[in-house]
Amino acid sequence: MLLCVRVIIEPDSEAASRRAAKFVADLLRKKPDCVLGLATGSSPLATYRELIRLHKDEGLDFSQVTTFNLDEYVGLSSVHPQSYRQFMQVNLFDHINIRLTSTNVPDGRALDFETHCRQYEQRIHDAGGIDLQILGIGTDGHIAFNEPGSSLGSRTRLKSLASETIRDNARFFGGEAKVPRLAVTMGVGTILESRRCILLAFGDHKAKAIRDTVEGPVTAQVTASALQLHREVICILDQPAASLLTRRDYYADVEKAQSLLEAGQLKQLGIGGQG
Ligand code: F6R
What we know:
The protein has helices at 13-30, 45-58, 84-91, 113-126, 163-173, 188-192, 207-215, 239-242, 248-262, and strands at residues 5-10, 35-38, 66-69, 71-73, 103-104, 132-135, 157-160, 182-185, 196-201, 233-238.
């Protein structure tokens, strides 16, 4: 691995999603009992579709996998059509051979959220930690529901949604008024403990958040920027989401070097040369 924050820019979101799914599939083949951190929303949808295809066409096996979702709306039961539990069932879990008991989504209707959040963290810890965390990013730069101003050391807890997020998600609820105001969410600190993160962003409405995340300062005002402190982050973007990055040529050079490294073509990188 050459870089802490790798930036992979694909021609379109479909290619980017296939790339993301390949990272997941490679991990599963290497470590069949791996722990995946999962996101909801539009960004990971095509990645999940590709994972379903790999399961159906190539027998990609999820039978030993454990999953932890990032977040859930407060007040929605697990069978509410807009709950993140339902999203995961419909868009992934119902189509692969994962054991339902190995899938974890925070409970939006917990009676005691403090205890529930502590137990969620404990379950992640007991599972051995998250091997690979998939992330989307909000237009305000949030990861999970860690809205601007969230502590970069935060753990799973209740969080108020920002007005920008309520506006962005109103389309799923048929109006802003119907969007829940609170969510249970993994904290930035929880996410930073995962061994590898894949951040997906597609479309020009994500371009500013991606620029701030990758090339801006680390700040609680853009919680995704905390990923700069993570040991292994891979941002997989389409062209529009990458359009405001100023170092695109450099990221392409790094990817070329990374491919040579992975192909064992060390000489072309000047590794092992003489003189
Ligand atoms: C969802 C989540 C959110 C979304 C973000 C982007 O589990 O954690 O942070 O990833 O709001 O949403 P989309 O992908 O719908 O643009």
